[in-house]
Write a structure and sequence with these properties.
The chain has 18 helices and six strands. The protein has 387 residues and is α/β, with parallel strands linked by helices. It has three domains: 200 residues, P-loop containing nucleotide triphosphate hydrolases (Rossmann fold), CATH 3.40.50; 90 residues; 50 residues, no CATH class. Strands 1-3-4-5-2-6 form a six-stranded mixed sheet. Helix 11 crosses helix 12 and helix 13 packs across helix 14.
C-alpha cells in the first residue's frame, strides 16, 4: 500500500503547474482590420479592453464613490469572459485580440494535462495559485465544458471521479469569489477568458459569473471581407459570389477552402491560372456536403439544381428551334415546284426514247418528300439545264 502511494506521489510530483499554464506568443500583426467580426462584437471587445485600463478603473471607482452609499457592497469577483459559439468561428482569435489591445500577456490552460493528473483538484488549485501571481495577463480556457460541466446531472452518480469534478468546480468558484478584498482598491490584474462550443452543458454558476459573448458563424459581410483578404486576385463580383455561396461555413472552413485550392493549383504548371472562382466554389461545395443542415449547403444544392434546370431549358429551346426549322423545310419541300428548264432535257435529250423520258419525269414529279433530295441528286444534277 505504501509502495502504491509512493508511486502515486512520484507521478503527481512530475506534473509542474507551469506545464498546465502555458504562455502564448504575442502576434504584433493583429489589428482590427485583420479581425473579420461584426462591428457589434468588436465594440463589446473594446469595452472589455477598457476595463483593464488603469484610467478607466480610476474613473469607475470615482463613480462608485459618487453613486453608492457603500461603494464596495456590490462585488462580482474576478472579471471573467465567456465566449460561446460553433467551432472555428474565431473565439481564440478574439482572446488574442483582447491581449493585443490591452497589452496583456496571454496564457492558456492545457486541460488535457490536468485531466491526466492523479489528483486534478490538487493540481488545479496549484495552477490557480500561479494565475494569482500573474500581472496584466489574460488566461484562456478553451473548451471549458470539459472541466466546468454542469453539476446537476453529475449529482445522480456517486464515484470518486464525479466527486473530484464537482470539487474542482467548487474550488474554482470559491477562488473567483475570494478576490473581493482586491476589488475597488486596484484594477484587476488577470482576465479569465473561457470558451465553449456547448453552452448548454456548462455549469450555470460559471455562466452567471461571466460576461457572455456569442461568436456565431460569419455573416455575409464578414465572409465577403474574408474573401477580399484571402482571394484578392479575384474580381469583386467573384469575391461576393464566394461569400454568398459559403454561408454556413466557419472561418476555419473558409481557410480549408482557400488552402485546398492553392495546393491543387501548386501541383500544376502556370499554377496562378488555376486559382479561379469555379475552383473555390467546387471545394466549398464539397465542404458544405459535410454539414447538410448549413444554409450554404442548401444554397449549393439549389444552385446545382438550377444549373440542371437551365441546361434542360436550353436543350428544350434548341429542340423546339430544330423542330420549327424541320417543319419549315417540310413545308418548302411539299410546295416546291421544279423549274421547267429542269425537265426540258426530257423533251430534247436525243439519247433517251420517249418511254425513258416519261419515266424520269414521273419519278421527279411524283417523288415524296424523303425521296426528292435523292432523286434530284441522282437525276437532275446529271442533266444540266438545256438552253
Amino acid at each position: 500500500m505504501a509502495a502504491k502511494k509512493e508511486g502515486k506521489n512520484k507521478q503527481e510530483d512530475a506534473i509542474d503547474p507551469l506545464t498546465v499554464l502555458k504562455p502564448l506568443p504575442n502576434d504584433p500583426n493583429l489589428t482590427w482590420a485583420s479581425y473579420f467580426a461584426p462591428d457589434e462584437l468588436k465594440e463589446e471587445l473594446q469595452h472589455i479592453a477598457e476595463t483593464m485600463d488603469p484610467a478607466f478603473q480610476k474613473r469607475l471607482q470615482a463613480i462608485h464613490q459618487h453613486c453608492r452609499e457603500r461603494p464596495d457592497a456590490i462585488y462580482r469577483g474576478r472579471p471573467m469572459l465567456l465566449l460561446h459559439g460553433p467551432p472555428g468561428t474565431g473565439k481564440t482569435h478574439a482572446m488574442r485580440m483582447l491581449a493585443s489591445l490591452c497589452g496583456l500577456s496571454a496564457f492558456t490552460l492545457d486541460l488535457k494535462i490536468m485531466a491526466e493528473s492523479w489528483e486534478p483538484r490538487v493540481l488545479f488549485n496549484e495552477v490557480l495559485g500561479e494565475i494569482s501571481k500573474l500581472s496584466r495577463a489574460i488566461v484562456f480556457l478553451d473548451e471549458c465544458e470539459g472541466i466546468f460541466r454542469s453539476r446537476g446531472p453529475m449529482m445522480n452518480y456517486a464515484s470518486v471521479s464525479v466527486t473530484a469534478k464537482v470539487d474542482v468546480i467548487d474550488d474554482f468558484l470559491a477562488w473567483v469569489d475570494g478576490l473581493e478584498t482586491a476589488r475597488g482598491k486596484k484594477m484587476p490584474q488577470v482576465l479569465l477568458c473561457l470558451s465553449t462550443n456547448m453552452l448548454d452543458h456548462l455549469d450555470q454558476a460559471i455562466i452567471s459569473r461571466s460576461t457572455c459573448l456569442a461568436i456565431d458563424l460569419p455573416a455575409l459581410p464578414e465572409r465577403n471581407a474574408w474573401w477580399r483578404a484571402h482571394a484578392k486576385h479575384l474580381a469583386a463580383p467573384e469575391q461576393l459570389q464566394l461569400a454568398e455561396r459559403t454561408e454556413g461555413l466557419s472561418f476555419r472552413d473558409l481557410s480549408q477552402v482557400a488552402e485546398r485550392v492553392e495546393r491543387a493549383a501548386a501541383r500544376k504548371e502556370e499554377s496562378l491560372k488555376h486559382c479561379t472562382v469555379s475552383k473555390y466554389l467546387d471545394v466549398a461545395s464539397q465542404i458544405l456536403k459535410r454539414c447538410p443542415a448549413a444554409p450554404g449547403a442548401a444554397k449549393s444544392q439549389a444552385h446545382e439544381v438550377e444549373k440542371l434546370r437551365e441546361q434542360l431549358r436550353s436543350e428544350k429551346e434548341e429542340k423546339e428551334c430544330l423542330e420549327k426549322r424541320l417543319e419549315a423545310l417540310e413545308e418548302q419541300m411539299e410546295n416546291f415546284q421544279f423549274p421547267e428548264e429542269r425537265y426540258c432535257f426530257v423533251e430534247t435529250a436525243p439519247r433517251y426514247n420517249g418511254q425513258v423520258k416519261g419515266s424520269i419525269a414521273s419519278r421527279l414529279k411524283e417523288a415524296s418528300f424523303p425521296d426528292i433530295p435523292k432523286a434530284v441528286r441522282s437525276l437532275v444534277s446529271q442533266f444540266p439545264p438545256v438552253a
